[in-house]
Amino acid sequence: MDTQEQLAAVIARVALGDRPALRVLYQGTAPKLYAICLRILPDQDSAERALQEVYQEIWNSAAMSRANRSSPMTWMMAVARTVATGHRRRLGAAPCDQPDCAPVLADLSVLSGAQAKAPGIGGPLGLCLREQQVADVDMLRLVCLDGLSYSDIADTMGVDPAAVQSRMRRCFTQLRECLRR
């Protein structure tokens, strides 16, 4: 998909039950959504099964994307993260950390704390991430890309889940404010 407006138009057609529109949507967005599933799930088979469920969910709830204030791609990425995280929890598996995942996930690496601080990351998100502490950016990555829950992060870090939730809330608020500037 070339623009958010085109993507929104295709999703509107999907909401009306237009199967060819779903095919167009899949062809234009599957690589990015598959990368999200692959990042969260331990293997390609699991990611492919999750991707099928992602498009089933998009088909069933396309009308809801209009009510959502985020961009159509942001909404679809949230659906992918939610579905893949559910699969990962059911599998009890760790996120994908295999070397062959790296090329597929290159466009998502901006949320690595050290990289977010690097001067080469551009755009509004990159600028806002550079204002955050490296540890907070790494927590964002764990939540948004790896699909870990706050309690998973708390267990890993040996802190109270409420502390993680508070830190993440502060970080999301700061990012939102920065992006509005």
Describe the secondary structure blueprint for this structure.
Blueprint: H1 4-15, H2 19-40, H3 44-67, H4 72-91, H5 113-117, H6 123-130, H7 134-144, H8 150-157, H9 161-180
- Percent helix range: over 70%
Mean pLDDT: 77
Number of helices: 9
Give the biggest sheet.
none
Backbone structural class: mainly alpha
Number of strands: 0
Radius of gyration: 17 Å
Overall geometric form: globular
- In percent terms, what proportion of residues is strand? under 5%
Give helix and strand order, one letter per element, not per position.
Answer: HHHHHHHHH
Uncertain segments are: 95-121
Distance from first to last alpha carbon = 27 Å
Give a description of the structure:
By secondary structure, this protein is mainly alpha-helical. It has nine helices and no strands. The chain has helices at residues 4-15, 19-40, 44-67, 72-91, 113-117, 123-130, 134-144, 150-157, 161-180. The longest helix is centred in the N-terminal third of the chain and has 24 residues, at 44-67. It is globular and about 50 Å long. It starts with a helix and ends with a helix.
